[in-house]
Design a protein that fits this description.
With 203 residues, the protein is mostly beta strands. The chain is 14% helix and 40% strand. The chain has helices at residues 25-38, 51-55, 138-147, and strands at 11-12, 20-22, 45-47, 71-82, 85-89, 92-96, 104-108, 129-134, 159-164, 166-179, 182-202. The protein is globular.
C-alpha cells in the first residue's frame, strides 16, 4: 500500500512529458480503459478536476501540474466484472435505479461524489474500497442526503459500510451501474476488487 500511518504520502514532482492531463474522473477512466484494452502501460495522469483530484487535495491548477510544486503519487484502481467484461474506475462505482428509492451501492476509491462526502474514511492509496450500501425509507433518505456534504450520514443503522480489497455483491433486482459518473450498463452481480498502486497521478 502506498499510504501508511505516520509516513508521508507522495512526493514533489511534475507530470512527466508523456503524462495526460484530465479534467474529470470520466476522462481519467477513459484513458485507463483505453490503455488497458490496448495492453499498454498506464500513463501518469495530471488531475485538473474531479472527485479523485479533490480527495487528494488537488487545486484544479493545470499549469501547476507541470512544475516542481506539484505532488506525484501512486493510487489504487477499482475494477469490476460486469456481464463478463472487466471495467476500471478511478474514483467510484455507483449502482442504483434512483437516488430517491430502492437500493443504492457506492464502491468508493475516492472520498467524494460531487459535493457529497460519501466515504469519509476512503483513501485512494490504502488498498481498499469503501463500499457504502443502503436502502432507506424516503424520510430517512432525505435526512441522510442533508448530512452527506459533511460526511455525517454514517454511521446509520440502515447504511452498511465495509472496507474491502475485494467483494462480490448480489443486486436483486438488477441495478444500473455508473463508473466515474458514466452509466455502463445494468447488473445483477458485481465482482469488485482493488488494484493497489496501479496508477501514477499528479495534483
Amino acid at each position: 500500500m502506498s499510504v501508511e500511518k505516520g509516513k508521508a504520502w507522495g512526493a514533489q514532482g511534475p507530470l512527466p512529458e508523456d503524462g495526460v492531463v484530465v479534467h474529470s474522473d470520466a476522462e481519467a477512466r477513459a484513458v485507463v480503459e483505453a490503455a488497458r484494452r490496448a495492453g499498454h502501460e498506464l500513463p501518469a495522469l495530471g488531475l485538473a478536476a474531479g472527485d479523485l483530484c479533490r480527495t487528494l487535495g488537488g487545486r484544479g491548477d493545470e499549469a501547476r501540474l507541470r512544475t516542481d510544486a506539484a505532488t506525484r503519487a501512486t493510487v489504487d484502481l477499482g475494477s469490476v466484472l460486469l456481464d463478463g467484461s472487466i471495467h476500471w474506475f478511478v474514483a467510484h462505482l455507483v449502482a442504483r435505479r434512483s437516488w430517491w428509492h430502492g437500493r443504492v451501492v457506492a464502491a468508493m476509491n475516492a472520498q467524494w461524489i460531487g459535493r457529497w462526502d460519501v466515504a469519509p474514511r476512503a483513501h485512494p492509496g490504502d488498498g481498499l474500497l469503501d463500499v457504502v450500501d443502503g436502502d432507506l425509507a424516503l424520510t430517512q433518505r432525505l435526512k441522510a442526503r442533508r448530512r452527506l456534504p459533511a460526511g455525517l450520514h454514517v454511521p446509520h443503522p440502515g447504511i452498511r459500510v465495509q472496507r474491502r480489497a475485494a467483494v462480490q455483491l448480489d443486486l436483486q433486482p438488477p441495478l444500473d451501474v455508473w463508473l466515474d459518473g458514466v452509466r455502463v450498463g445494468r447488473a445483477s452481480t458485481l465482482s469488485l476488487r482493488v488494484e493497489p498502486d496501479a496508477l501514477t497521478v499528479v495534483v
